[in-house]
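Here we describe the complex-level prediction in full. Unlike the single-chain runs in Section 2.1, the two entities below were treated as one system.
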Amino acid sequence: MRYNLTLAWHGLKRYPRSTVLAVITVAMGVAATMTTLALLHQLTADPLPGRSGHLYLAWVDTVRAKPQQSQSLNDITVQNYHRIKWDDAQALLHDHRAIWQAPMASVFTEIRGEGDQAKKHRNYVLATTSEFMPMFGVALRSGRGWTAAEDQTHAPVAVIDSEMAQTLYGTADAVGRELRLGHGVFRVIGVSAPFSLQPHFYDLAAFSFGDQRRDQVFAPVSALLDAGVDLAGSDACDEDGPKKTTLFETDAAHCSSLSYWVSLPDSKAASDFHDYLQHYVQNQQALAGYGKTSRAELTGVGAWLSRQNVVPDNVRLNAWLAGSFLLLCMANVAGLLAARFLRRGAEIGIRRALGAPRAAIFQQHVFEAVLICLLGGVLALPLTLFGPWTLRLQDSGFTDLAHLDPAMFAALFALALAVGVITGWLPAWRASRVEPGLQVKSA
Amino acid sequence: MSLAVMLKVLRRHALMPALVLLQVALACAILCNVLFLVWQRVQPMVAPSGLAEDELVLVDQITSRVRPWTGADVRAGQLALSRTPGVRYASAALGLPMIGTMMVDYTLQSPRGVKVGVNGYFGEGLVKSLGLQLVAGRDFLPSEYQEFGVNQPSSGVPDTGSTESIIITESLAKQLFGDQPAVGQILQVPDEPDGHGYQVVGVVRHLMRNQLALATDGRADNTMLTARRVGDTAMVGYAVRIDPAMREVALRGIRAAINEAFGPLLSEDIPVKITTYAERRHDALRGARAALWLFAGVTMAVIVVTAIGIMGLTGFWVQRRTRQIGIQRALGARRSQVLRYFMVENLLIAGAGVLVGMALAYVANGVLMRHYELPRLPWSYLPIGGALVLLLGQLAAWSPARRAAAVPPVVATRSL
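The structure predicted for the assembly as a whole is:
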């Protein structure tokens, strides 16, 4: 085997031009495939490993409005993020049927520190309730989260992340400081580690990917509503509610504007919870007369992400394109290899005549193919680093995520190896069929 | 030499031709699909807009942070803009070309039952402000405009029974009415249950829709203007037609006029955008352009890889048969015959590859279509992609075939 490897290595050096050509071709194919797969891998990775399997988005359709019938020929569909009204959220919270549950809405709003001269910042505030932090595993650096009792009493408290603490107060030690949101004054009771999930799956209404997309302040919905902070955005509003006055104004009582996530231990609990939701909708007297079928849904994280089409189609399309390009490169390299193997038919004949079994010839040539493809893999590395730059031109913010991690690095070489074995197989088999006698004669 | 002999030779040494065939098939499948994707992206870029592009300034995202704009606010803005030095016409509008933030979606139905999805632009005097070219009928009369409010839609809708006037494009007229004259025809909107009908009063040559993703396959001009004046709304835009000689002055004036008319109430989160049409178009097509570069790169790579592959394999093929070529030459075959033999052989292999590739392209498109939002690959792309790959094969085979033709007859007398 060692000998076969050595022979393979010598084989490489014998035809440097075709070796270089094959290496470059493999490198291009592998780099294109890895670039697109790396991006796809990042975008489809589990956003919250260990927890996401237990998380479900609960939705009840209680909006008092006639169902919208849109038959657009223009492919316009009304986005529905399965949000619910604040009143329903409160009722579900009160029943407390899941292990953990919390309504939430990510709001872009003004955040100010202490004093009248404090600088204004605008960023995302997550309006939610006490169980959000344990449910999603937000890590506290100091202080505490708030309690259900504080939700009840509309206590103006907030947890901010260490970066926001640094921006507002110049120190991460911000517990006890004052924070102004809307027209309310909140007290910082905890400082958390930066909490950035990719994608921002628990509220997809704004941008779903990107390092900038992060909730930096967490505060009770009740207190935020008291302070006049608008939830800014909803799926639908009651027809009998007040008319909205600005583009993004949202009336939490009449508009479905909160995503309600629950944590359930197993599928039995999930199906029970779904029944409970169904019951809840069926008992909504006020819905009578709007001609709606009662709808309640419970969606897991994975199903939710694929349903919302979070990964853009063109990312997948590019992966397909790159994959077929790799196939083409493989066919090409197989051709190059076959040509060079058969060119040394005489040599193979001699080796065979001297007693080398077919298997040895086969092995030698597969090794040669693998060596070429591994070299291609090495060359693909810098190309793969350059690849995301090209994709970024096409971008909608998420391509910053396309970077190589060690797993992808390993995958790249596994791919190169596989490509080598597959492309080498046929030419090497053909080489191993060379008859010993004939070749010796003509040489 | 007869085709039968050629096929026999190919069958005897099947590996090389099979590998060429495989490459050609894959290249053909990829190129057909990429060509199709390219054309999907290119169409919105080359579609005529119908606008006075050089003279157009688009203002949009005028949003309030406290209350919706009233019809009076909107009109005041329009008046202020039209009095700005360098400005010829200004119209408040809901929906503007190349701007995707607000789109008006209609499904029109003709008396013949043809249904077409269109984008609408609302606003007073848009024919003049956008610089559209009327080819039939007339512009809206000032008395025809109804105020359309987002929160009080009833203020704008005329009594049932009377129709609302619209202006459509030539292409839309053709789709809806065929060769009949469009002016005077009545259209229905099937998803408006209490629909009152829309009467075509004018036809413009071109007007590009603002749903750019749908501006393909002859749908770029699926656009209509309605005789609606912008009433109360949370967000408004303006189409401003300027004197191109005074562009700088006009742009400055427009900004000042907007600030004066709306200033204190403007939302802080959403800045007002004031841009020339060219800038807006550039922005709107950015994604499509980037995709085109990517596809161009893929096409180049596919062509280079395939060409090198075919050249290498044919070269080897020729080299292996040097002796036979020599014998043929010695027996009286002319150079041109040897050249032709290798070119025809390549054509044969590549032709088979192209057939396989076209089938593969169609199947691949079918699979992709089922999973992603992608239209069906039209049949017409297959022969185009196939012809391209055949040509590529011939070009790649040219140099090895020349080498084969150059083999001297004397080779036959040498042993290898």
